[in-house]
Amino acid sequence: MATLEIHDLHVSVEAESGPREILRGVDLTVKQGETHAIMGPNGSGKSTLAYSLAGHPKYQVTGGTVTLDGEDVLAMSVDERARAGVFLAMQYPVEVPGVSVSNFLRTSATAVRGEAPKLRTWVKEVKEAMEALQMDPSFAERNVNEGFSGGEKKRHEILQLELLKPKIAILDETDSGLDVDALRVVSEGVNRVRESGEVGTLLITHYTRILRYIKPDHVHVFAKGRIVESGGAELADKLEEEGYAAYVEGGASE
Ligand code: ADP
Ligand code: MG
Ligand code: MG
Q1: Closest ligand 1 atom to the C-alpha of 49?
Q2: CB-based pocket (< 6 A), ligand 1
Q3: Which InterPro entries does the record associate with it (predicted)?
Q4: What is the pTM of this model?
Q5: CA distance 28 to 211
Q6: For the chain, what are the domain ranges?
C-alpha cells in the first residue's frame, strides 16, 4: 500500500526582493485508495505544493520531508518521481510544440513503465481511454496543448492519468474552466482511476463544485501556505456556505 508522507514542508521561490516563503509547514499523509481534497483561496500556495511534489526547479525546499513508501522524494529528479508513481495534472498545462499527443503519451508511458508499451495493446489502450473521455481520435495527432481549449487541456491531463496509472495523482484545479458536461466527463475519468483502488488522489480545488462528482474521503483547508483545518466531506459543505473568509487575514475571501 503506497503512502505519500509530507512532513513540515517549507518551500520558497526567488522573488525580485529575495527568497519568499510560500509553503510554511505542510503536513499531509495520502494513502493509495484515498482521495484528499485540498481547498483554499487563490494565492494560498496550492499550486506551489503541487509543483514542489512534482519537482519543479523553481520551488526551493527549505525544510521538511516528503517520502513515498519511505523513499525520499525530494532527493529524486522529476523523472525519478514520475517513475516512482507521482503524477501531476497541472493547473495550466504547457504547450509542447512539434510533439503529438500520441507520441507524448507513448514517451511518457515508456518512461514511467521502464519499457515501451507493446504497440498493439497500447493503441487499444489509448483508443479506449480517449473514447471514455469523449475525445475525437484526431486529437491524438495534434501537438500537445497547442491551441487546445480549456476543456481539451484538462481531458488530456486525465487521459495521461488513465494511461500512466500513478500511485499518487495530484490534480491541480482540474475543474477550472470546465463547463458542466466536460466536468462530468473529466470527473468520471478520475473516478475510474480511483475505483482501481491503486491510486491516492490529491484533488486541489478552489471551488466545491467538482466534489459533487468526486467524493473525497478527507477535506483540508489550505491557507497561507499550510493546512489549517482537516475534516470529512462535510467540511466542503461548510466552505461552500461560508467561503474562506474565516481563514484569511482581514476576512477577505476570493
Ligand atoms: P494557489 O495555487 O493557491 O492560487 P500559488 O501556489 O499559485 O497559489 O501561489 C502562491 C503564492 O506564491 C502567490 O502569492 C504567488 O504569486 C506566489 N508564487 C507562486 N509561484 C511563484 C513563482 N514562480 N515566482 C514568484 N512567486 C510565485
Ligand atoms: Mg491560483
Ligand atoms: Mg493554483
Answers
A1: 6
A2: 13, 15, 22, 40, 42-48, 58
A3: AAA+_ATPase, ABC_transporter-like_ATP-bd, FeS-cluster_ATPase_SufC, P-loop_NTPase
A4: 0.94
A5: 19
A6: 3-245
